[in-house]
Design a protein that fits this description.
39% of the residues lie in helices and 25% in strands. By secondary structure, the chain is of the alpha/beta class. The strands form two sheets. Strands 1, 2, 3, 4, 5 and 6 form a six-stranded mixed beta sheet that branches. Strands 7-8 form a two-stranded antiparallel sheet. Helix 1 packs across helix 6.
Amino acid sequence: MKVLVATGSKYGSTREVGEAIGAELTQRGFDVDVAEAADVKGVHFYDAFVIGSAVYGGLWRRDASALVSDNAEELRRRDVWLFSVGMSSVKTPGQQATEAKELASLVNAREYRLFDGALDYDRLNMGEKAIIRALNPPKGDFRDFAAIRDWAGSVATELRTVAAL
């Protein structure tokens, strides 16, 4: 079974999560391509998808959301899992959880998962730093790669079940 793991990542944190998911799926015997969402030229080559994005202000990166929305009709006929990487402990008043839930509904995703991300203040641009100063979130790497690999393992288990049908 051919699986695409695609990510929308600005600073690399989400890309590294996608790489960990891809490695776990590969270790479990799947033929996996890991790619940046912006580099995906078509979805018709794949049997299943794990698509994720960094989340900023409740929104996915444009390249990842476009990959899902532009290919929604074809993705609805495949097995799809979506994930977000962000600072779930930081929410602004009135902020929606994320557009990812809408995208998950659009493609009938089997599951949507939110993982904590990493915040490296020194890599941010001036505008981002101003927002971060106002929100004052914890800084550092909060990604739980054991939980990420466990989730990828559950995706692999579901893929095996689907493939056996």
